[in-house]
Give the backbone structure.
Amino acid sequence: MDWIKIFDSLQHMKQTLGDKPRLLIVHNKRLCIAVHDDSPLVVSDRCPHNGESLSKGSVNYLGEIVCPWHGYQFHLQTGRECAQRAPDVETIPYE
Ligand code: FES
């Protein structure tokens, strides 16, 4: 696995990302990065339900990314959809 440095510090990450999920393209792969409880969390940008871009969604207080299309909620750490209506979203490790 290749590790890619994106931010110089936690402060740099928080200043850059703010409180909205963002699209990150790494090696032609679309990823969604978000901050929850001061930690970066990264998942595939493609919603497993019907393919919408999760980086267009929002993060709720439970640390779930909420898809903007049909509102399915995927836990950013486990990738699991809260009501198990869709397959898990791929989670991406980070350091
Ligand atoms: S496309 Fe994401 S919930 Fe339907």
Observations:
- The chain has a mean pLDDT of 93.
- The chain has one helix and seven strands.
- The pocket of FE2/S2 (inorganic) cluster is lined by residues 47, 49-50, 52, 67, 69-70, 72 (CB under 6 Å).
